[in-house]
Design goal:
By secondary structure, the chain is of the alpha+beta class. 34% of the residues lie in helices and 28% in strands. It has a five-stranded antiparallel sheet, sandwiched between helices.
């Protein structure tokens, strides 16, 4: 599934306010959509630093494995970061902003996980 289609699928998740596909190394959003009430491009760059920091910490403490997802819980929003790991999508992550009052977090994580198999660049 192309990046634009991935963004549309992410925005179809109940409670979705914003979505992006982000390059981990550069922090650049390869695609984005929705209106979360803030600059998704800036959030993309900041969240790439969060993912890299966690990867570095895991390496430093000798923790093996890979990050599946990261959840950031705010007063009114959930921010889900889904790290992609296929050969075609390594180095990318999905970023989904959810309205906390409208979203079902478990279902959103399930749907986001289901999308990852079809993402292509």
């Amino acid at each position: 599934m192309a990046i634009d289609a991935t963004i549309q699928q992410m925005l179809a998740i109940d409670g979705a306010k914003g979505a992006a596909v982000i390059d981990l190394e550069s922090g650049m959003a390869l695609g984005q959509g929705g209106d979360p009430g803030f600059d998704l491009g800036l959030a993309a760059a900041g969240n790439s630093m969060v993912v890299r920091a966690k990867m570095n910490t895991m390496r430093d403490i000798g923790l093996e494995g890979r990050i599946d997802d990261i959840l950031i819980t705010l007063d009114g929003q959930y921010h889900l970061i889904k790290v992609l790991a296929s050969a075609a999508t390594s180095g990318l992550f999905l970023y989904l902003v959810l309205d906390r009052t409208r979203a079902n977090l478990a279902l959103a994580r399930f749907r986001l996980n289901a999308l990852t198999a079809d993402v292509s660049v």
